[in-house]
Design goal:
CATH class of the domain at 2-177: Mainly Beta
Strand content: over 45%
Number of helices: 2
CATH topology of the domain at 2-177: lipopolysaccharide transport protein A fold
Number of strands: 43
Largest sheet: 27 strands, mixed, barrel
Distance between the termini: 70 Å
């Protein structure tokens, strides 16, 4: 084995030549592609000593190669290497049977089983190549290429210009795996074109007279087509259009354009052209910084906010400028502090639904800063604003939160033998019309567990709260008017508790272990009364369940403090199986010994003896899990609230790889103290699906679900998905039907029904059809 080097002027880093035979389309030109040697089998620059210069000079250094034989003809200034020729320069590696370099014309000829392995992992094969000076220009014949993302390309011949542009003739392109039983069969899809250009500057591959074939059958012809080079994660260009039809828009088309501004930022421009309305323009900008990220999505257009009325009456109304903006930013200041913001505003919920932007019941905006110091301390300060999107929302009474500051400290060492947590916060709320309030509040909690002589577990707890208020206009709050809260007031409370648990465990041998654990907690503190002198902004929504049964203050916020003396009790049992499964259940209630209730009627804690609360988890095997919670009236046993969820995965069933099903139930009693017209919820949901994997590795999936309201006796949501996906192709259909109505007009919201079809050719693009 001999080694030699060619002068640096005769090679260039970006030597890329691609192509394939079969101009008549007979057989599969992608089928006989060789397999590149793994990186571990390739020689390294240290395997041979170059002549004429050292190895490792990068792209401007000499090409070093090894061969079985090397001949140098001094009269004709020609170097000929034969037999297992292996050459490399920088990050490129080349193999061939014969390598000839003419030092007079500076033309290199490579013949026989040519392989070019690029630094980015792309592999090119050819029978023969003739390369000009610097390898920047040249031609190749019968060439194939392995590109990134499983893509393959073949062409009759290729011509390279200036080291960056490859012009190819009679091109075939696909990212599909070939049939293992018959590699000559056409792949699932392929693109054939008369000419193609791979431009490494623009990082795109463009085709002329292109035809997309599925299973060898032509389905689409286009005189020009372009897509990003598979090795390019981001490239500018038009994306596949989305076509569709809706009642409001009529026939419409979206033609998105993606602009890769630089390595850190990009912009997606999506105009919507519709039959019945003026064009709409949507923009999405993203940028990454060294210390954070920014994302801004927005749109503008003309829209009739009374579109539902127009659709039902057939009478056109005037359209106004409408739009939305969704944005977020996150930035790290140093190792302790980070800042961020969210800005979300929209002209209406109907606008978001109609143009299929992400829609929400309420939009929230905020700006914040937060700090972290190890695992002991945390601080946050923010301001917030909310926007209700429905016609029934009185935006003048929706509060602005400014400021909201919070600090907590939880030392990781024991204090007094127990664990201490402290916090302090300030909260300010203002409205355009209605009440305002400012609150300064603090809480100190301490907890110490210890074991009794019988293996029982005792826990001593203490919690102190203090809050000061300055409020006005409280009588203007809808449904909860409270003029007594106006002015400056202070509130405080202290709660002490003794908690006892006794876990009895029993071994069941091969059946696992069983546990029965009674638990009793005694809680006492001053009676807090109705606390009407204080605003209530964060403790309105309350739900009594097993999760807060043993909390010292069971209100969700700080504006209401639970007082009096009570006893909490529960019995928990569990059975843990040796296979990892388990069955567990808990039932409990609370009994107020002294003090008055501060909780709303019907929520389980308004009487001396509370409602019964419980939960159950049943998961005897890995493929089944059922979780349920319930609350029953403490006197009559009447059903007050419950929720349940069951998931079952049957695994392989016959030819199907996986079959699954799920079911759920939700019941919530009305909450008139929050919503005067609230009817509560009584819903069931059922869903399921299956998956089938083909011999070629493709996956068929289908799933469907329905949520049904038992109170109004009609569905709430119906949706289904069916599709196929493999390494190169996606075909998916989605159907979703919502039954939501405007609470004033009782008309269905626009966009309640959505049908979406997605056809994706991986590495090329996705096509969408949408109907609403």
């Amino acid at each position: 084995m001999l080694a030699i080097s060619i002068p640096a002027g005769a090679q260039q880093q970006n030597t890329t030549f691609i192509g394939a035979p079969d101009p008549q389309g007979l057989g599969n030109p992608l089928s006989d592609m060789p397999v590149a040697a793994p990186a571990s089998e390739r020689p390294t620059p240290g395997a041979a000593t170059p002549l004429g210069g050292p190895v490792g000079q990068g792209d401007d250094g000499p090409v070093t190669f090894t061969a079985d034989e090397v001949e140098y003809d001094r009269e004709r200034e020609r170097v000929v290497a034969t037999g297992r020729v292996e050459a490399w320069q920088g990050g490129r590696f080349l193999r061939a049977d014969r390598f000839t370099y003419d030092r007079t014309t500076r033309i290199a000829t490579v013949q026989g089983n040519v392989q070019v392995i690029e630094a980015d992992g792309q592999v090119f094969y050819a029978e023969e190549a003739e390369l000009g000076e610097g390898f920047r220009d040249g031609v190749m014949t019968e060439v194939r290429a392995r590109l990134a993302q499983n893509a393959r390309m073949a062409a009759n011949g290729a011509r390279r210009t200036e080291g960056t542009v490859n012009d190819l003739s009679r091109v075939v392109y696909s990212s599909c795996n070939l049939c293992a039983e018959d590699p000559t069969r056409p792949p699932l899809w392929q693109m054939r074109a008369r000419m193609a250009t791979q431009d490494r500057n623009t990082q795109r591959i463009s085709y002329r007279d292109a035809t997309i074939q599925i299973g060898g059958v032509p389905v689409l012809y286009t005189p020009y087509f372009s897509h990003p080079d598979p090795q390019t994660p981001r490239a500018s260009g038009f994306l596949f259009p989305t076509l569709g039809y809706t009642r409001y828009l009529g026939a419409f088309a979206q033609t998105p354009y993606f602009w890769a501004i630089d390595d850190q930022s990009d912009l997606l421009i999506t105009p919507t052209f519709a039959e019945k309305v003026l064009p709409n323009l949507a923009l999405e900008y993203r940028r990454r910084f060294n210390n954070g990220e920014l994302q801004v999505q927005g749109s503008i257009g003309y829209f009739d906010n009374d579109a539902a009325t127009r659709l039902n009456s057939g009478t056109p109304t005037s359209e106004q400028i409408a739009g939305h903006i969704f944005s977020r930013g996150r930035f790290n200041i140093d190792e302790n502090w980070r800042v961020g913001f969210d800005l979300n505003r929209a002209s209406s919920e109907s606008y978001l639904r109609t143009f299929r932007f992400e829609y929400r019941r309420v939009l929230s905006s905020q700006a914040y800063a937060e700090g972290f110091w190890g695992t002991e301390s945390y601080a946050r300060v923010d301001v917030r604003a909310y926007q209700g999107l429905r016609s029934t929302d009185d935006v003048r009474q929706i509060p602005y939160v400014a400021p909201n500051a919070y600090f907590d400290y939880a030392p990781r060492r024991q204090i007094g033998g127990g664990w201490l947590t402290t916090d302090i916060g300030i909260l300010g709320l203002t409205r355009d019309v209605g009440s305002y309030s400012q609150r300064l509040a603090t809480r100190v909690s301490w907890e110490r567990p210890f074991y009794g002589s019988f293996g029982d577990i005792w826990t001593v707890r203490g919690q102190g709260d203090a809050a000061g208020y300055a409020a006005g206009g409280q009588e203007l709050i809808t449904n909860t008017g409270n003029s007594a809260a106006n002015g400056v007031h202070a509130n405080g409370n202290f709660r002490a508790a003794l908690d006892w648990r006794m876990p009895w465990m029993r071994s069941a041998g091969d059946w696992g272990t069983q546990t029965i654990e009674p638990r009793v907690q005694f809680v006492t503190g001053p009676n807090m009364g109705k606390q009407i002198r204080f605003p209530n902004e964060d403790s309105l929504d309350f739900e009594f369940n097993d999760a807060n049964l043993f909390q010292l203050n069971r209100f969700t916020g700080r504006d209401r403090l639970e007082g009096g003396t009570r006893v909490d009790a529960a019995l928990r049992g569990s059975w843990n199986f040796v296979n990892g499964g388990r069955v567990e259940g808990l039932v409990g209630r609370s009994y107020r010994i002294a003090g008055s209730s501060q909780f709303p009627a019907g929520q389980g804690l308004d009487r001396q003896a509370s409602d019964w609360v419980g939960r159950a988890t049943i998961s005897p095997v890995s493929w089944m899990e059922m979780i349920g919670r319930a609350r029953l009236d403490g006197q009559t046993g009447q059903h007050r609230a419950s929720e349940a969820l069951a998931n079952i995965s049957f695994g392989r069933v016959g030819p199907l790889d996986n079959v699954f099903a799920n079911a759920g139930y939700l019941y919530a009693s009305p909450q008139p103290y929050l919503f005067p017209n609230d009817q509560g919820r009584n819903e069931v949901s059922v869903g399921g699906g299956a998956q089938y994997r083909t011999a070629g590795g493709g996956v068929w999936r289908v799933s469907a679900s329905i949520r049904y309201d038992l109170k109004i006796e009609r569905p709430v949501l119906i949706q289904g998905v069916a599709g196929y996906e493999d390494e190169c192709f996606i075909l998916e259909g989605r159907l979703m039907r919502r039954f939501a109505q405007d609470p004033v007009t009782r008309e269905d919201y626009i966009g309640n029904t959505v049908f979406l079809v997605r056809v994706g050719f991986k590495t090329v693009g996705d096509y969408f059809f949408r109907a609403i």
